[in-house]
Amino acid sequence: MSKNLGNATSASQISIGENVDEKKIISFVFSILELFKEYAINKNDPYAQDIIKNLEKNKSLGFPLNKHIELYISKHLEDPIKIIKYILFRYKFYITGTKKINLGFPPYILIELVSSCNLKCPFCFQTDKSFTRKPYMGVIDIEFFKNIIDQADNLGVGAITLGSRGEPTMHKKFSEMLNFISTKKNIMEVKLNTNGSYLTEEMCHSILKNNLTQVVISSDHYIKKDYERLRLGSNFEKIVANIDMLFNIRSKNYPNSITEIRVSGVDNDKNLDREKFKNFWIKRCDHVSATFPLERWDTYNNKPHPEINDPCENLWDRMYIWFDGKVNPCDADYKSLLSYGNAKDKTIKELWNNKFIKKNREIHLSNKRCDINPCDRCGATYV
Question: Rounded to whole angstroms, how far apart are CA atoms 274 and 305?
């Protein structure tokens, strides 16, 4: 069985050969149902009430369950309140996108620590030479980063991803950032997207000590020549050794770690033997997934897709924040034509509710996303 890790029908990572024990998850939530009801009353949260109704009527949480959710819940069974808060976040994240609901703040924020990358993959915008230079290249200031995290924690943002257009582990203060974010109590998930090139022993300890919920390592093949062809500038043996190092440090020093390690691939040639791909990587991680490529290497000159007009969920369920403070609805628009402000000038909440993004939401809801560049040439669809 394969499970999508996102809502997009054309852009999601798909778990390879992973069965999700949905009955076990639902059974556990039923076992803490009275606590869930008490939490819903105390917080006066209508979304918690919706989940309880779904449970009692349909034996469902009201959103799709995937391998990542199953792993998260299984690693927090001793903390039912955390699981309740996590389920509530996941439900809100799901319905904001699918039902186009504005919570008043983004439920999910992706923070770019570094915009450059040491690799030049053919399916990535890092191959666009007009992008890999000023003003697009830079690193985030750590005090600005801390300000973003403080705001997110206070707003109730449920998930943070470190990484977007570049390789986040290239930042010299990466471990200091992990130390800071680990002190926040309202952020349910902290995910790292990395190509694994810069992982060191010290960095692995920092990742595990600070309880990142997920490390997603981009790796597109299991054969050296194909891996290095797809990940230009990489060394296959070094990446394998680095992933082994993270996996082994976790096994030896953090046996009760909540950190999930996932290897994630882009099936660029659309002929990847996914079973062999999984069999190679699953020995050194918890979870393997793959997706087909989207047109991300030169978005602005892609051929328009007039047949794709459904509203993009990104406008309701996430915010990207670049190193220089620009906020964006997605990273397919890697040159920020759709930027709706700067987080160095306005608060996250102010930006999320301003007239610029509101106008884009209205255009998408009117099924006129083809009137917007580059939305008109993005292959992501949700129907």
Answer: 29
Q: How far apart are CA 378 and CA 359, in angstroms?
A: 19
pLDDT (tens digit per residue) in 36-47: 999 999 999 999
Rounded to whole angstroms, the Cα distance separating 313 from 380 reads 10
DSSP sequence for 167-193: -GGGSTTHHHHHHHHTT-SS--EEEEE
Per residue in 273-305, pLDDT tens? 999 999 999 999 999 999 888 766 778 988 899
Q: In what order do the strands lie in the sheet with 189-194?
A: 14-15, 287-291, 260-266, 214-218, 189-194, 159-162, 108-111, 319-321, 327-328
CA–CA dist 84, 90 (Å, integer) = 10
In angstroms and rounded to an integer, the radius of gyration of the C-alpha atoms of the chain is 20
How many helices, marked H, and strands, marked E, lie in the chain? 14, 9
For residue 222, what are the β-bridge partners? none
Distance CA 163, CA 197 (A): 14
Q: What is the pLDDT of residues 191-223, one digit of tens each?
A: 999 999 999 999 999 999 999 999 999 999 999
